[in-house]
Amino acid sequence: MNFQNIKYEVAKERKEKPKLKILIYWAILSFLGIILIKSYIRPQPPHLSETLDFLQETLPNFFAGAIFYVLGFIYFKGLFRSENSLIRRHLFAFLFSFLGLTLWEYIQFFLWDYPIDYFDNIMTAVGNIFTIFIIFLLRLK
């Protein structure tokens, strides 16, 4: 597969499935959520409660999981021209998102000695599950 073929397949699918735009908007909204939390909320945390402190630390992983899931779901058809099974598509998107972000947690541990936060991995999975729920509500195939 070359880049032009992938681009063509994704553009073709966007024309065939107009509801796919809603999924793309979800990814953009998730990206804006990460920027908002990391740029404005974390530098000056309000410390309202332990729950809000927990959420400001883990929500970026929720949104990142959603973004990578959407990317894996959209680009599956362009990357793999084989049978476009919905189960395979979801499996690829989940593995792409969850394993990629979990691997990133371990890379940070070994390169920069950051502690591994398992709650980040859990929030990544929750972001993936929430995105699956959105896809099923949109009835995308």
Automatic annotation (TrEMBL):
Keywords: Membrane, Transmembrane, Transmembrane helix. It comes from the Bacteria. The chain crosses the membrane at residues 22-41, 61-80, 92-112, 118-138. This is VanZ like protein.
